[in-house]
């Protein structure tokens, strides 16, 4: 077995399969739980919920970690910053023989991505996993900490129920530390702050000036929530604002795929067009220029039109007032969607329409977009579906919408490297 140090920023919480309701710190003091969770599958792909080991990369692992963290944080009612991964390990086992703990020092799959390693020596280990065939099993173990700062405010945690919520094979409780002074200081929440570079919009120098940042197959950052016009993917209450079948599922970075193989059907983690006017609007915080728009439909494809909104399309703190109307004519406008089910409708914007050939002047900013860029700066995308036939039992289900293009004068260019 090889242990791999997890990045300090990784947030993963895993589960407990043993029937436990572990005691909290004595006298109501904060308690730090150290746990090791075990996930088992026929391959790493089955653990990460993807089609094949070959597609596992750092983005897949990061999304998997973040999703587990969010689920556990919500289940245990603790903030995400009180859940921290410490290390990972891999075990491989063949059915009918004793367990083998193998060192996979150069594994160029998920854990190599987590560790930041890209060593070429991983290819042989990867082949060994891929060729293990019938009767082989892989286990992913993760050791992580969960801090409970308010044990008196709730009943003892039910780790069995947590296991059911997150789906690990088993979890070992390694120990509980009640030295509250050290714990609280270590896990203290960071002070609230605006997005990096937001001061630039108020006429101050940006922290890290960037003219533009390209992105590929990126989800939009914002959509309508339960209680407000727009919710951004990194808002602290994102999961509370998200509901099954609603537009925020098209913004949700850390969700699992609706299906592991080509399938048509309903999906709670997608947008389901269940009522008129059958329209969804996605928003961008930074002005963007789009090259392609890819719409994945997993039930009853029925995209009728795709229209662009000028930036900003919604109220954004520190940005100019929203602009009204549409940005030119629809980029897609058809009476019938012939996309197969499941299938992806890809809309490609002509280069002149996209604006990607326009130079980005060094003297410009989001607050003062040059006219040449203003004509193509997108703040939102409106997708309209055809109304279902009378009496139809099926509704259109959109699993995701991904964009390729570039952001203009991004306030935080790192958002486009995910």
Mean pLDDT: 75
Instruction: Output the CATH topology of the largest domain.
Output: Jelly Rolls
Report the biggest beta sheet as strand number plus sense, adding barrel if it closes. 10 strands, antiparallel
Name given to the CATH homologous superfamily of the largest domain:
Galactose-binding domain-like
Signal peptide: 1-25
Keywords: Signal
Descriptive notes:
Residues 1-25 form the signal peptide. Keywords: Signal. The chain has 418 residues and is of the alpha+beta class. The protein has two domains: 2-186, no CATH class; 198-416, Galactose-binding domain-like (Jelly Rolls, Sandwich). Helix content is 16%, strand content 28%. The chain is built from nine helices and 15 strands. It has helices spanning 44-48, 58-76, 110-115, 122-130, 159-166, 180-186, 238-241, 351-354, 371-374; strands at 2-5, 31-41, 83-94, 136-148, 170-177, 212-219, 222-223, 231-232, 271-272, 279-299, 303-310, 332-333, 343-348, 378-385, 397-408. Strands 6, 7, 8, 9, 10, 11, 12, 13, 14 and 15 form a ten-stranded antiparallel sheet that branches. Strands 1-3-4-2-5 form a five-stranded antiparallel sheet. The longest helix is centred in the N-terminal third of the chain and has 19 residues, at 58-76. It is globular. The two termini are 30 Å apart.
What does the secondary structure layout of this molecule look like, with pairings?
Layout: E1 2-5, E2 31-41, H1 44-48, H2 58-76, E3 83-94, H3 110-115, H4 122-130, E4 136-148, H5 159-166, E5 170-177, H6 180-186, E6 212-219, E7 222-223, E8 231-232, H7 238-241, E9 271-272, E10 279-299, E11 303-310, E12 332-333, E13 343-348, H8 351-354, H9 371-374, E14 378-385, E15 397-408
Antiparallel strand pairs: 1-3, 2-4, 2-5, 3-4, 6-15, 7-8, 7-10, 9-15, 10-13, 10-14, 10-15, 11-12, 11-14
